[in-house]
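USER: For my understanding, would you kindly supply a protein sequence with its structure tokens?

ASSISTANT:
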Amino acid sequence: MKTRITELLGIRYPIVQGGMQWVGRAEMAAAVSNAGGLGLVTALTQPTPDALAAEIERTRSMTDQPFGVNLTILPTASPPPYAEYLDVTIKSGVKIIETAGRSPKDFIEKAKAAGVRIVHKCTSVRHALSAERDGVDAISIDGFECAGHPGEDDVGGLVLIPAAARVVKIPLIASGGIADGRGMAAALVLGAEGVNMGTRFCATVEAPIHDHIKQALVGANERQTQLIFRTLRNTGRVMKNAISDEVVAIERRPGGAQYEDVRHLVAGARGRGALESGEVDSGLVWAGQVVGLIDDIPTCKDLLERMVAECQERLAYGSRCFG
């Protein structure tokens, strides 16, 4: 498959692994890249910039294919040393960075001077256009179906992807709600030139999380995710479990809630513990509505080859219908 995304990123298939906290480790990134997509190491999964450098080298020992680093810029009172994570990524020779969260404007000049391609993930057309003006190389547009933070506009991919495609001139990646070749074909028809998947890659053999979590993803249907932080204007989509139920119940109390009221439930360390222990109800498990389309736990290689074949089949079917 050949699109502007495959050419820009130097990959065989226009399929990108989401930059997932606690999941975007060397095993995950290398498996996706070896399968023909673009694997991403998640910078903030690593406790320090030096630890990220070591994880990049570990990834490089597992693949000779292109891979990138995700750097999510979070709105926090005590921000991590983002500039140091960027410097380590550049020094390590990584040539692709996915940014998310706040605007990457402050990092673009340094990254591009080092020959680094920047893919910025955003949840609205206006933010996509802003990032394009700032000089990023590609946009990953994230629909309301996605895991993580879908923004506050609540626009699904069926509208958001073509809305972005008709005005954004740089290559566009569709993200959120994609798990198979049918979704990939739809994204391409809607105007994207590649797809990004997070939740689907969590349910693969190589994903570095407990099998009980993978089985929970397989067993869930499309109604078994939940929106948290709605009242805090920082909406997040997670798998529905005992923790998410409690968070939502606190948010719905008379008078509302503050972040401090739920901090003990949503702490990152608690979510990491759930992924590693397999205790589904012990922490937040971030997942998108696409859980309703996940039926198995393949290798990344089998998943990508199956997706590409199904995508080509669906596109050919559409062509025959109107041929």
